[in-house]
């Protein structure tokens, strides 16, 4: 599982720690498509592999 970075604000989604409502251990591919960056509200599609 790889970390993902928001191309808008730089927020990192780390699957080892999760993010808000997403529990630790959830791969980014398994995060719902409706999920938004908790910092800038960018769509999941705006994230790239770190």
Automatic annotation (TrEMBL):
It comes from the Archaea. Residues 1-50 form the Rubredoxin-like domain. Its cofactor is Fe(3+). Signal peptide: none annotated. Coiled coil: none annotated. CDD domains: rubredoxin. It holds the Pfam family Rubredoxin. One of its GO terms (biological process) is alkane catabolic process. Keywords: Electron transport, Iron, Metal-binding, Transport. GO terms for molecular function: electron transfer activity; iron ion binding. Belongs to the rubredoxin family. Rubredoxin is a small nonheme, iron protein lacking acid-labile sulfide. Its single Fe, chelated to 4 Cys, functions as an electron acceptor and may also stabilize the conformation of the molecule. This is Rubredoxin. It comes from Methanospirillum lacunae.
């Amino acid at each position: 599982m790889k970390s993902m970075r928001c191309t808008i604000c730089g927020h990192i989604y780390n699957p080892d720690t999760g993010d808000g409502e997403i529990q630790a251990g959830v791969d980014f591919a398994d995060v719902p498509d409706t999920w938004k960056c908790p910092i800038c509200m960018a769509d999941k599609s705006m994230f790239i592999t770190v």
